[in-house]
């Protein structure tokens, strides 16, 4: 259920699930393939229309400007006419009106029957291809989402670091004025403080870029804000994936299409049969637009057409061989895709377990290092340790923070990938 809300032209997402729900409705990379399903559906209906009879009605008018004379044997009308004599006569009417009704129905056409099945399979493949696009878009959004989450966490740490170095700098300035420390020691603290300021600026800029990338992915002009980080973390865990990978589903459907094409091409050898019925009605008259004395000439016929392919230069055989070769290629690709996706799932589980362990360890190390840094700062302020030692100990904290953020990034990526991989894209 989409629970994101807008505040002063800003859309706030409370969880990653809300981002995905919004993407389903607004992301161009998901909407366009979904809209193409309507085109596939129309194409399927168009192919099915070949099963129905075609009915055509026509009407016409002929103006016989010159009626051709005909030589008729003289004895036909006059028994006393000389042998071999002919008489010139003209038959027909100058104006002829015609109407025609034609019905044609191919009652038996195996190739079109299999073409309908192929069209249906292609429509189903189009739906699966839409889900593949969804899967890829989800992964793109996951990468952006966890990067923003990481940047927000990094910003929190950076601000705390800046506070720490600002305190250290104030303390160093006082000691420098008193002549306790050298200018090089003061410069070292100043450099560290400037580095922390620069880190905040870089993180802010990076976060701004990430938000704009997410706006582009979601087809949004409004500002975006993520308010709840890792809200579904507890519900994600590594396990066997029950849902079939969308790319495997798509390849399986491609094999079904190839099998149907083989049958469709084999149907080129089969006979076809159709019925034709035609009814014609003509009016012939001597006067234009005057049918009162017209001669009516009705005509109708019913025909049956049987077409048996005998020889076509082996063209059909080559088409069948070609479609069978394509089927074999699709089967090889399916086997490869299944192996690749199975291994990707296994690797993803291994990555999740390892990155989770690394994050737990580095979180503990960071917590201990934070405590050590507090003790070190107290010792420095009490004059027990030198500024150099204080800065050296502080670098240990920075190293622990870096390791923590790196493990958080690795774990977040694995976590979101597993979350998406567990989605059953076959369900509506």
TrEMBL record:
Pfam annotation, one family? OEP
The text of the family note is: Belongs to the outer membrane factor (OMF) (TC 1.B.17) family.
Annotated GO CC locations? cell outer membrane; efflux pump complex
Keyword RNA-binding on this protein?
Answer: no
Q: Where in the cell is it found?
A: Cell outer membrane
Keywords (alphabetical) are: Cell outer membrane, Membrane, Transmembrane, Transmembrane beta strand, Transport
Q: Can you name the source organism?
A: Epilithonimonas mollis
Superkingdom of source: Bacteria
Record-level Gene Ontology MF annotations: efflux transmembrane transporter activity; porin activity
Q: What is its main location?
A: membrane
Q: Does the keyword Metal-binding apply?
A: no
Name the record gives this protein: Outer membrane protein TolC
InterPro entries for this protein: OMP_efflux (IPR003423), TolC-like (IPR051906)
């Amino acid at each position: 259920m989409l629970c994101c809300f807008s505040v002063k032209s800003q859309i706030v997402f409370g969880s990653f699930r809300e981002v995905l729900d919004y993407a389903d409705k607004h992301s161009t990379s998901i909407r366009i393939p979904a809209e193409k399903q309507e085109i596939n559906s129309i194409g399927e209906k168009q192919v099915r229309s070949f099963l129905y009879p075609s009915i055509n009605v026509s009407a016409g008018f002929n103006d016989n400007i010159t009626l051709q004379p005909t030589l008729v044997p003289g004895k036909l009308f006059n028994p006393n006419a000389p042998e071999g004599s002919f008489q010139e006569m003209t038959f027909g009417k100058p104006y002829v009106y015609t109407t025609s009704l034609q019905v044609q129905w191919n009652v038996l056409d195996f190739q079109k029957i299999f073409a309908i099945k192929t069209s249906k399979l292609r429509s189903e493949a189009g739906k699966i291809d839409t889900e593949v696009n969804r899967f890829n878009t989800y992964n793109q959004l996951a990468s952006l989402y966890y990067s923003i989450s990481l940047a927000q966490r990094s910003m929190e740490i950076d601000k705390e670091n800046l506070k720490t170095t600002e305190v250290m700098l104030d303390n160093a300035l006082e000691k420098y004025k008193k002549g306790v420390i050298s200018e090089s020691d003061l410069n070292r603290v100043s450099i560290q403080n400037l580095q922390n300021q620069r880190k905040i600026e870089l993180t802010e800029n990076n976060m701004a870029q990430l938000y704009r990338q997410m706006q582009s992915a979601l087809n949004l002009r409004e500002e975006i804000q993520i308010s709840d980080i890792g809200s579904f973390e507890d519900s994600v865990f590594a396990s066997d994936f029950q849902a079939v990978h969308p790319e495997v589903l798509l390849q399986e459907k491609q094999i079904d299409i190839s099998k149907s094409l083989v049958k469709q091409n084999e149907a080129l050898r089969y006979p076809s049969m159709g019925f034709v019925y035609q009814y014609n009605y003509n009016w012939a008259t001597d006067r234009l637009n005057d049918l009162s004395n017209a001669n009516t000439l009705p005509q109708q016929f019913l025909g049956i057409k049987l077409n048996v392919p005998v020889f076509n230069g082996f063209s059909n055989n080559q088409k069948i061989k070609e479609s069978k070769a394509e089927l074999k290629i699709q089967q090889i690709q399916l086997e490869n895709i299944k192996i690749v996706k199975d291994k990707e799932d296994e690797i993803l589980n291994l990555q999740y377990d390892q990155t989770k362990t690394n994050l737990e360890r580095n979180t503990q190390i960071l917590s201990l290092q934070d405590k050590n840094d507090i003790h070190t700062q107290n010792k420095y302020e009490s004059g027990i340790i030198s500024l150099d030692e204080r800065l050296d100990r502080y670098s240990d904290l920075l190293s622990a923070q870096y390791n923590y953020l790196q493990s958080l990034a690795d774990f977040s990526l694995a976590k979101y990938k597993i979350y998406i991989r567990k989605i059953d894209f076959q369900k509506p």
